[in-house]
Amino acid sequence: METKKLIQIIVIVVAFGAAGWVLYNGLFSGSGSPANQSQTSAQVKAQDILPNGGQPWDFSVVAEPNSHHFQFDAVQYPQLNTTTDVGVATSSLIQPPPLPK
Description:
The protein is mainly alpha-helical. It has helices at about 5-30, 35-45, 80-85. The longest helix is centred in the N-terminal third of the chain and has 26 residues, at about 5-30.
């Protein structure tokens, strides 16, 4: 076997071994087993991260008629007058292709 292939195989085996070692230490370190980790994480009080309710599908807060969550008219944009503001006729925007000779 060539030395280049042998070095590549050794590097790959070492990389997979190191990845397995990191995963093993990450999963099974600390309190022993994953069952104990899930029990300790269940004892920690969950913190609400949603600003308008506890469930992602709860739209009751934003669907109220007097709710100010959706402001569609917050910014008034000026209207564009196409005859004076743009200066290009709409018929000249797309040119027809030249006819073949």
